Amino acid sequence: METLASFHPKVVHFAVALLLTYVLLEVLYLIFKKDFLNKSATLILFFGVLGAIASLLTGNQAYHYAEYLFDTYDVKIPLGLIDEHEEYAKITTFWFVGILIIRFFLNVKNKFKGWIQIVVLLLALAGTYFVYETGEHGGQLVYKHGVGTKIIEKGVVPESGNQQKVEEEHEH
Fold it and tell me: Is there a contact between 3 and 148 (Cβ–Cβ < 8 Å)?
């Protein structure tokens, strides 16, 4: 049975794709001023934020599993790099939650125009930096250190019969 941690690599890419698509829609709305682009940007941002929250939740479980491997099997996992990845993920999520709140409120009040729209676009563009840094740190964890891969578990985690027990232990 897959645990919540195993969903992290699956959900994180949706958040990245949706948040970056949102920024593109924000740029297009500024240029073309079409209402459907404004509504699309808000909707895609909403789903991107949901994806980011899901990524945080699954990433938190993945972190606990990494700690479990580190403590139980003395697997060399760069917990400091995981901490940096987690910090960027939190910043990214809260950054885009803030943009969503601002954007939604201004749209409801029909004040999402002019210089305010440019400020929101600049905030969105700045948010892409946080998306990049989160992904960069996550990529280092996977491709440089093997975190989250079956390779890192080979030879340290007991085989099939005990696997259920291992998964149950790290869920708590």
Answer: no
Q: Distances in Å between the alpha carbon of 170 and those of 31, 64, 154, 165?
A: 49, 7, 17, 9
pLDDT digits (tens, 9 = 90+) for 28-85: 999 999 999 999 999 999 999 999 999 999 999 999 888 888 888 878 889 899 999 9
Q: Which amino acid is at 97?
A: V
* Confidence band for 148, pLDDT divided at 50, 70 and 90: confident
C-beta of residue 19 within 8 angstroms of C-beta of residue 47:
no
Amino acid letter for position 80 = G
Q: How far apart are the first and last CA of the chain?
A: 15
d(CA 60, CA 41): 28
